[in-house]
Amino acid sequence: xxxxxxxxxxxxxxxxxxxxxxxxxxxxxxxxxxxxxxxxxxxxxxxxxxxxxxxxxxxxxxxxxxxxxxxxxxxxxxxxxxxxxxxxxxxxxxxxxxxxxxxxxxxxxxxxxxxxxxxxxxxxxxxxxxxxxxxxxxxxxxxxxxxxxxxxxxxxxxxxxxxxxxxxxxxxxxxxxxxxxxxxxxxxxxxxxxxxxxxxxxxxxxxxxxxxxxxxxxxxxxxxxxxxxxxxxxxxxxxxxxxxxxxxxxxxxxxxxxxxxxxxxxxxxxxxxxxxxxxxxxxxxxxxxxxxxxxxxxxxxxxxxxxxxxxxxxxxxxxxxxxxxxxxxxxxxxxxxxxxxxxxxxxxxxxxxxxxxxxxxxxxxxxxxxxxxxxxxxxxxxxxxxxxxxxxxxxxxxxxxxxxxxxxxxxxxxxxxxxxxxxxxxxxxxxxxxxxxxxxxxxxxxxxxxxxxxxxxxxxxxxxxxxxxxxxxxxxxxxxxxxxxxxxxxxxxxxxxxxxxxxxxxxxxx
Length: 510
Known about the structure:
- The protein is of the alpha+beta class and about 500 residues long.
- About 25% of the residues lie in helices and about 20% in strands.
- The strands form 6 sheets. Strands 11, 12, 13, 16 and 17 form a 5-stranded antiparallel beta sheet that branches.
- A hairpin with a 3-residue loop joins β8 (about 205-210) and β9 (about 215-220).
- α5 (about 290-300) packs antiparallel against α6.
- About 35% of the residues are buried.
């Protein structure tokens, strides 16, 4: 292409982009918003929240509701991505260890200001042993947090302080680019006190209305700092559902036939989540203490054969870091049958029987059955499936009293390290019993690396080590599907944290 042709092509491309932009704007303006009394949404067949305390809420239902009642330093936007909430400006010191946040003005439903001291008090309470929050570890990189957790220092020594009403300073023990993104998680929402749902003093786009055995209702908070941009008047979440009803939102059950949906009335939204399911061996138990045996199993996996057993939003994956947008560093290579034969010769046996620990759950049963058929392609291997209720299964894994498990992991924060720390030698969650000095060194290097890009490269290498040694055998990434009534717009679906975000959602004439 000559220079003149290139310029013409570029101009035509620019004109086309401008045309599409204008057309989309005009199309948006031509849609008619429903009146305020019809700006409501009902989420049908959804679990109800159980825990009003942001520091203790671990279930997605509670985290989702709390994320609509409060606004913290950061929040999940309409596209599901993390964006500033109450943060107006962020500055980092030259050495990268001191974060200074300038806050926007915000008041609670009781008319009290949300200030930098509100966050100081909240963070101190979060790391306090007496709070017993499962999320206190998220502040481990803040000055004195670890010492406070060990009872060696008092909570008021935490590296957070209020310089003035709208200036919050946080001091880290090491520079950590991207650290601020953890503040979007529900545990950091500014909750001054908590008793029950109907007594919460909140500062978010919605406030509590009512709750009974089958539903909870929220209504627009007129004191919210961006109330003018909030269109929905009411959010209702109810545990009962009938998928033949064509209104609001419906989480789609695992075994529901979506071909029955009237696509002129309802949309289907398939939403990826941060969770990942995998096969997890206990590397202290024979024959899983043999890396060649683990590799033979990993190489035998044919994930495409599992697709029919997965829910529609779930996707097979060979990655542990399913939130990573970059390609994997390395893939496991080798011949499964040859490796398995060497293991049998070493053990002087022609047959090996292993036990696969699984959940008492319809989908898990389907997946486990297919995994058994898949793995038993290795000549001489027998797989026995043992199903346990979730609580019993977790206790068995934590105690190390298992050999091989269909397991899963849902990260608590939006950084790649969230998938990997559980495989460090001294981590309390290391039920795999994996202990590798070079892996631990990679994780230590990542922690001491300021640049987010450079840190993620190290973490990908750590993932590669786990995959090459078949310490973890990824199967699929979690996902969720919703039926959504046509006409609703700007519903956010975060990959991590709350299940959905309705802050700036609105309903148009269909």
